[in-house]
Amino acid sequence: MEVINAIGRRKAAIARAYVSVGNGAITINNRELTNYFPSGILQYIVRQPLELTGNMGKYDIKANLDGGGITGQAEALRLAIARALCEIDAEAHRPVLKSNGLLTRDAREVERKKPGQPGARKRFQFSKR
After folding, report:
1. Domain of 47: which CATH number?
2. Phi/psi at 52 (nearest 5 deg)?
3. Residue 112 lies in a domain
């Protein structure tokens, strides 16, 4: 198997994942996973597709992350890894990933601020007099 690449997006974050057969090393922007995402929750989010399909320690993952915040980047990488696993073996991995909602791109974006008000929905305080 050669290198499989996939892309994942979430909010303003873009993740490009390159998956190849290996011993389970996850490298993000030339840094280790535990170094890039110090929070255990974010590490769990990134590893979720591998754990659900039973592929922990079977594939090396190199990822390029760009834009957004750390949570958006972690969820974008999760989508990219899930898509790459589907490319490797669709019959075995796709039903598990799909039933857990890992193949759906979360399309929620920040609503823009409107002119003449302090936020997207918030209004200035009304004064009758």
Report:
1. 3.30.230.10
2. -65, -35
3. no
